Amino acid sequence: MSKPPSIAVVGAGIGGLAVAALLKRAGYDVQVYEQARRFERVGAGIQMTPNAVKVLRRLGIEERLRQVAFRSELRLSREWDSGEITSELKLGEEVERKFGAPFLCLHRADLHAAIESAAPPEIVHFDMRLVGLDRNAGEIALTFANGSRVRADAVIGADGVHSVVRELLLGPEKPRFTGRVAYRALFPAARLGDTRVAQVQTKWWGPDRHVVIYYVTATRDQIYFVTSVPEGAEWMTRESWSAKGDLGELRRAYSGFHAEVRAVLDACPGAYKWALLERDPLPRWSEGRVVLLGDACHPMTPYMAQGAAAALEDAAVLARCLERTGGEGLEQAFKLYEETRKPRTSAIQAKSSSNTWMRTDADPGWVYSYDAWGAPLGESPSRVSE
Ligand SMILES: Cc1cc2nc3c(=O)[nH]c(=O)nc-3n(C[C@H](O)[C@H](O)[C@H](O)COP(=O)(O)OP(=O)(O)OC[C@H]3O[C@@H](n4cnc5c(N)ncnc54)[C@H](O)[C@@H]3O)c2cc1C
Known about the structure:
Blueprint: E1 6-10, H1 14-25, E2 29-33, E3 45-48, H2 50-58, H3 62-68, E4 74-79, E5 85-90, H4 92-99, E6 104-107, H5 108-117, E7 124-125, E8 130-134, E9 140-144, E10 149-152, E11 154-157, H6 164-170, E12 176-188, E13 201-205, E14 210-215, E15 222-230, E16 244-245, H7 247-253, H8 259-267, E17 271-278, E18 286-287, E19 290-292, H9 307-325, H10 330-354, H11 365-368
Parallel strand pairs: 1-2, 1-11, 2-7, 4-13, 11-19
Antiparallel strand pairs: 3-6, 4-5, 8-9, 9-10, 12-15, 12-17, 13-14, 14-15, 16-17, 18-19
């Protein structure tokens, strides 16, 4: 590359940091602009399925994550009341052998910190909330709420489900509230007393609600659950990871569930509440030298645990497309990236929305086998077999 193009990444979430780390290594002049003043250690768990871990591997952080993560032997689906097992997937060594990488359950902050460690700290700028993009100039001018302005040859909008970059490209349109919220809680497993509860990662399926429970540490000292429960439309406007949920309401919502579920909810000292949002696939992901990545372009319900995984896959494929076209072909690279990624992310968005993933035995291979480093670039139909 003669003079490497400058690339501004908006948003230092999982996708933004991953793409910044990869592009920095490839020689680009990358800067990341994040609205938050600092990274908070939000109490939430996250599942990294094998397709996501293959991306983390190239970032050089797989070993670090293996050390801290919980690796469940099984992933179960169970009936909410009887506890009957309706699907059983072997994880542990077997998932690694079959799909080429482990299945990790983690504290979200451990994952975020590991990805952050892969990018040089001096390229991440905090307290920078993007409010405007001026694309008339040869370069793109970015304007921030604090009054500062910077210029870049290209912009990657990795600014999440309420993406300002998406709005500046495609016009205002709120994501769709699914009519459901997630309660999330992460707390010391010692509060459970009985350690036989929740030994393996389990999704408990009720008639109109569910709860997923798993440990998030290798030592099993921290346990996490995340629910999906019907909720009124006023929750649409909430977007904070720190909105508190009412424990009494939560426990009442699950009062008929199996004793194992109730034991976990009873032991929980406090929960957060998060509106579940989604969008239909967007008409396009880029315009000129501005492109979207992660939740900014394909937000989805968390029912397949693929939102962050898809953002990581995007980061890897975008880096490959830029490598293919070279520094001069930014727009071409962005088109190739969209062509490559959209069929897969649209299929995952649709499947996730239906909330049927792995309720009964099925082969998760079309999701977990994917290797963002080897997938052919360009349009290819997404193989959906479940
Ligand atoms: C309850 C729940 C459970 C989930 N569980 C899983 C799971 O187990 N596995 C999985 O793979 N996925 C999971 N997901 C999905 C996952 O959290 C998201 O898909 C993922 O965080 C998307 O990453 P991102 O980088 O695109 O966006 P985000 O992580 O949302 O990051 C966006 C960043 O941009 C910043 N930003 C926003 N606006 C601006 C602006 N104007 N200027 C500057 N910065 C800005 C934000 O502060 C943030 O740091 C879950 C989601 C939910 C809601």
